[in-house]
Amino acid sequence: MNIILLGAPGSGKGTQSEFLCDKKNFIQLSTGDLFRTNILNKTKLGLEAQKYMNQGLLVPDLITNEMVKEYLERKHDNLIFDGYPRTDDQAQQLDKMLLLLNSKIDLVIYIEIDESLLLERLTGRIVCSICKRSYHKVNRKPIRNGFCDFDNGTLITRPDDQEDKIKIRLEAYNTQTAPLIKFYENKLKIINANNLSSEEVYNKILGVLKI
Ligand code: ADP
């Protein structure tokens, strides 16, 4: 089964993917993480993507789709798509790529959340430099200040988690990604996450997945 997690930056897609991978053997395909790994390794793709990411802008579809295509040629089942697709073109290309591989998207879970909460989450977010798990400076502190509970990796603030960049990312989400809710209306399950902890959201996801 392949699932897309749809939602604004900060809606918890990464955290939920993490739970689903740890507990239910899904594999996370996070385009944001793939780009960041490329940046770290200073690949051509990484250097190109970095120009856009650091400004809070979406990486062009052509680059993003090509990276996903390469990934899907190796793995195309049991995936959680986290942060992809993000535009109409990406959604259409994804359908085509999966069809060629005899696979498909089974379900799209839209994590709905108020923008004020997103801002609070993103401005306080710190992430592990090794495993990418997220923490929050005030609301979800690690046990040892500055280090990941899981692997002791250093916690860092992502360069695009600065307020001016966050605004641009939310704008990109509203204009380019939110319309996908309509694109996927036949496969869509909505979870309102406003007053829920990440564990509660996860339980709702399990309910939707019936697993
Ligand atoms: P968030 O969901 O918090 O924005 P991500 O790690 O998913 O974090 O994405 C970080 C950045 O990576 C985005 O702002 C964008 O620049 C780039 N990116 C990730 N996924 C895509 C995508 N599918 N299409 C274009 N750009 C992407």
UniProtKB/TrEMBL annotation:
Any GO CC annotation of this UniProt entry: cytoplasm
Domain Adenylate kinase active site lid as annotated: residue spans: 125-160
Ligand binding (Zn(2+)): 128, 131, 148, 151
NMP: annotated span: 30-59
Residues that coordinate or bind ATP: 10-15, 125, 134-135, 195
UniProt: AMP binding residues: 31, 36, 57-59, 83-86, 90, 158, 169
Keywords carried by this UniProt record: ATP-binding, Cytoplasm, Kinase, Metal-binding, Nucleotide biosynthesis, Nucleotide-binding, Transferase, Zinc
Keyword Kinase set for record: yes
Function noted in UniProt: Catalyzes the reversible transfer of the terminal phosphate group between ATP and AMP. Plays an important role in cellular energy homeostasis and in adenine nucleotide metabolism.
Entry's free-text remark on domains: Consists of three domains, a large central CORE domain and two small peripheral domains, NMPbind and LID, which undergo movements during catalysis. The LID domain closes over the site of phosphoryl transfer upon ATP binding. Assembling and dissambling the active center during each catalytic cycle provides an effective means to prevent ATP hydrolysis. Some bacteria have evolved a zinc-coordinating structure that stabilizes the LID domain.
Subunit record text: Monomer.
NCBIfam families given in the database record: adk, PRK00279.1-3
Similarity section: Belongs to the adenylate kinase family.
UniProt name for this protein: Adenylate kinase
Originating species: Spiroplasma taiwanense CT-1
Source lineage: Bacteria, Bacillati, Mycoplasmatota, Mollicutes, Entomoplasmatales
Gene assigned in the entry: adk
